[in-house]
Amino acid sequence: MRREVIRHGAALFECAEDDLEIRPGGLVGIKGVPEHHVSFAEVSRRAHFQSGGPIIGRGSLVFEAGELDPKLVIAAGFMSMAHIGTYVFGAQVAEVEVEEATGRVEVIEAWSAHDVGRAVNRGAVEGQIQGGFVQGLGYALLEELVWDRGQVTNPSFMDYKIPGILDAPHQIHPIILENPEPTHPFGAKGIGEPPMIGVSAAVANAVDHAIGARVRRLPITGERVLRCLLSTPEKIR
Fold it and tell me: Among this protein's residues, is 193 annotated catalytic?
């Protein structure tokens, strides 16, 4: 993009590309002549309407991984295993309310902290953390394939429950930590799947704290919570 901006700027100034520089504030100017400059908007107009269309930058990165230690790796045959560039870290906290009459669990508020290396688009990272938490909430409380003699009995979203807006916590607080990753050109790490990984454990721990009994099977449905409550009534807080 920088090369294209300079190229169009040189055409506007009718000078050599080496004579130009990009300045703060979205300007292209002649080196050593502060008063001679054009804005990115002017450069963009020329590209759009006079010469070839919008300025677009393209780039890609594939992490060059070394050989995996066969003594440490327990999975083989997965292409992605050879392209793990860095590990990511996160932690979730959930505040829940449990209805003792039915065992229904409701997540009231949640906190989700993640080391993303560098948040290139902070708003998108926050949305990914919040969306990932809700998806993990479905795994924790609702989503389950039901089988009968080898056949799935809930094959559609009419019967397979996924979280909706009323199932989401009142607030999900995304906490972004930035410790840049040196092997990435922008210092970024992953934030795709990580936000949903620890949600079920956080919710299960919160339920355990609330009722004094551990539900050991996902999803943590009202029936399973109620069964725990009925089997250990003295532990109800």
Answer: yes
